[in-house]
Amino acid sequence: MSEAGDTARRDAIRAKVATAGSSFYWAMRLLPEARREAMYAIYAFCREVDDIADSDAPEAAKREGLADWRNEIGAMFAGAAILPLGRALSRDIARYGLRREDFLAVIDGMEMDAGAPIQAPFLAELDLYCDRVASAVGRLSVRVFGIDSPAGDRSAHHLGRALQLTNILRDLAEDAARGRLYLPRELLIEAGIKSTVPEAVLRHPKLGIACNRLADTAARHFVDAEAAMAQCPRRAMRPARAMGAVYHAQLVRLLRRGWARFAEPVKLPKATKLWLALRHGLI
Predict the structure, then answer these.
(1) What Å distances lie between residue 4 and 1, 7, 91, CA to CA?
(2) What is the spatial distance between Cα 266 and Cα 253, in angstroms, rounded to a whole number?
(3) Whole-angstrom distance, CA of residue 56 vs CA of residue 60
(4) Strand partners, 119
(5) Which domain does 46 fall in, by range?
(6) 217 and 148 in a common domain
(7) Do 146 and 204 sit in the same domain of this protein?
């Protein structure tokens, strides 16, 4: 591809990330340019496959779209990527040692969402889902940060789960509108909730018990992520620490709001996200 074409491709990826309004954008700006562009490409890939899984298309069409991306991943690792995004990721695979299995794990996670809506999965299934849609992204990320070590993978393991469980607690109403309920079945049963139907669970007076238990699990993962990140080069992990700080602040706000008003949005102001990103980028 020509230099002009490569620049246009990078500009398109960067614009996709910026318009998403994600705290990810601010955290990744802490990276040097080449690593930042690689993270933007990974984010764009995640958005592409997530949009397929969340679309209103028939299940067969969703699976076909995800299968196309499986083929593209194979082509990326063979040096024969077809899509502009695939070509961008091919460059980063070679530069940072990104692993095929982590890209494929993300696809596996999207396939879990492409079928019948997930409703009150057992804890083991929820943990597998979190590993695929979040921790696998973390494993790609830490390699872009320059870390290829067990401590880096432990950071991805725990931070990915912490972030995804926070998302689940934040998005209860939005997920229910799609027929989904990610609160684990064991916690519902312990709280005295027998139904697995999203609307019925969210109306149950003991919903808060299950949500608080899941919030406790998320909080433990945040602590374990901090411990794992402390064993990694501090400067390299600045974006991960910034993301962790933003999501932990989100979890605290969710707990303060409580679960009786689960449909009431809880958002961090952009200024707060920026402050957290800068704070963790300077220490």
Answers:
(1) 8, 5, 16
(2) 7
(3) 11
(4) 181
(5) 1-99
(6) yes
(7) yes
175 and 263 inside one domain: yes
Q: How many residues in total does the chain contain?
A: 283
Q: How far apart are CA 125 and CA 142, in angstroms?
A: 24
- CATH number for the domain spanning 75: value is 1.10.600.10
Rounded Cα distance, 52 and 72, in Å? 15
Quote the CA–CA distance of 266 and 254 in Å, as a whole number: 6
My answer on whether 68 and 156 are in the same domain is: no
List of residues 6+ apart from 167 with CB closer than 8 A: none
The one-digit pLDDT tens for each residue of the chain (283 residues) are 455 556 666 666 766 666 655 667 777 878 999 999 999 999 999 999 999 999 999 999 999 999 999 999 999 999 999 999 999 999 999 999 999 999 999 999 999 999 999 999 999 999 999 999 999 999 999 999 999 999 999 999 999 999 999 999 999 999 999 999 999 999 999 999 999 999 999 999 999 999 999 999 999 999 999 999 999 999 999 999 999 999 999 999 999 999 999 999 998 887 777 777 667 665 4
Tokens of 9: 């491709």
Taking each continuous run of H as one helix and of E as one strand, the counts in the chain are 15, 0
The model scores a pTM over 0.85? yes
Scored b (16 or more CB within 10 A) or e, 268-283 reads beeebbbebbeebbee
Residues 90 and 129 in one domain: no
